[in-house]
Amino acid sequence: MKFALYYYDACPFCQRVLRVLPDLKVEVEKRNVLTNAGYRQQQYAATGRTTVPVLRLEDESGKESWMFESADIIRFLQAQ
């Protein structure tokens, strides 16, 4: 499974998730929605929302799902 975190630096909830990433045993691609408008557009097209943080999950078949809420994202990634 592939993971991508959509975030921006000034967001305190994003920082909460970003702080735990180095301690995790999973690789998470970081996608800053303020420095790359394409990421923001991709997120909005898929979810209808622009709020961050949001974790994009992609399984082996290419099916994607999205997870909002920093605490849920942290718990999910720690369980991987």
SS-based structural class? Answer: alpha+beta
Spans of at least 5 consecutive residues with low confidence = none
H/I helix tally: 3
Could you please say which CATH topology applies here? Glutaredoxin
Report the major sheet: 4 strands, mixed
Query: For the record, what CATH class applies?
Result: Alpha Beta
Q: Measured on Cα atoms, how large is the radius of gyration?
A: 12 Å
Q: What is the 3D form?
A: globular
What layout of secondary structure does this protein have?
Elements: E1 2-7, H1 12-20, E2 28-32, H2 37-47, E3 54-58, E4 64-68, H3 70-79
Parallel strand pairs: 1-2
Antiparallel strand pairs: 1-3, 3-4
Helix pairs in contact: 1-3
Notes on the structure:
By secondary structure, the protein is an alpha+beta fold. The chain has one domain (about 1-80): Glutaredoxin, CATH 3.40.30.10. The protein is about 40% helix and about 25% strand. It has helices at about 10-20, 35-45, 70-80, and strands spanning about 1-5, 30, 55-60, 65-70. Strands 2-1-3-4 form a four-stranded mixed β-sheet. A hairpin with a 5-residue loop joins strand 3 and strand 4. Helix 1 (about 10-20) runs parallel beside helix 3. The longest helix has 11 residues, at about 35-45. It starts with a strand and ends with a helix.
Summary keywords:
single chain, 80 residues, alpha+beta, Glutaredoxin, 4-stranded mixed β-sheet, 3 helices
